[in-house]
Amino acid sequence: MDVSEATRRPTNHHLRRTPWRSTEKLARAGRQVARKEHVVPRLHYARFAFDRQQHLYCLDKVSGALRVTAADRLYIRDFYNFMFAGQMRDDIEMALGVIENRTPRVLKTFDRTNAGASFSFTDQDRYAMSLYLAALHLRSPRMRSWVLDDLVKKASHAVALRFAAAGPRYWGSARALLEGSVRVTPEEQAALVVFRELNRVGRIIFASNWSLAIRPRAPHFVLGDAPGVGFVPPRGGWFLFVPISPERAIAVDRARQEGAAFEMPAANAVRMNALAYEASVHTVAARDKAELDALIP
Length: 297
Fold this sequence. Notes:
The protein has helices at residues 12-15, 19-27, 42-46, 91-101, 104-112, 123-138, 141-152, 157-164, 174-179, 186-207, 266-279, 289-293; strands at 36-37, 55-60, 66-70, 76-77, 82-84, 87-89, 210-214, 223-224, 229-231, 239-243, 248-252, 260-263, 283-286. It is of the alpha+beta class. The strands form 4 sheets. A 5-stranded mixed beta sheet has the order 9-10-11-7-12, sandwiched between helices. Strands 3-2-13-8 form a 4-stranded antiparallel beta sheet. The two termini are 35 Å apart. The model is unreliable at 1-7, 11-29, 155-161 and 167-179 (pLDDT under 50).
């Protein structure tokens, strides 16, 4: 998708405070490094919970076990962290936190929108949500694995280090990286490639049409550990489907009318749930046990 052809573009004003820049003061503050890192934001998991303690049903894709789990337990230790100059760094986790803090107000707008109605946002809110949706798409275990296996390990050392140079200023200049005075592991490079893509994918999402798919009745939407399911539809283009609650999902697609809310047919919801299951690596979560029962092979 060529964003240059779009009439809707984020401006420099929307990009002034980048996630990386916002983490630098925190990184210098000597605070404790985060170790328990959520592949899906805890605030997003909580939207699928069935009680105030934020419990939800979870299907373990590896073991096939179905259990009840609290949202704050759905983490992977040090998933985004890396060693730099002998120290554990959680800059990526901090950057994601900056993005997540901007989105609750936008999510409430979607929550208030019913089928047949319409929605709209300021450019600032739209871009904040674009970054959030881009992060959901890029931060998943499957996407991280793809970046590591297909982009980093197959790329030349110099190309991989140029990707790494897109990180925060205190990691050193591109020249220092390329000369080898700063060493970056393939895993670190993979993480940096993913988050270098945030602005690029965010711009694509910003320029596309957004609609809201609604399921007021069962079957409801499930939430995989790859929450943003992206694919190329038969008509071409690019389609991204992101459940934001059991009843609502954002569809990013240039073909559909901007700002429209519609009731998704049950068969289509079942298909999207199946795609969410296929895209997930570890866990698929839901508010209703029946939705997960339907996914068990």
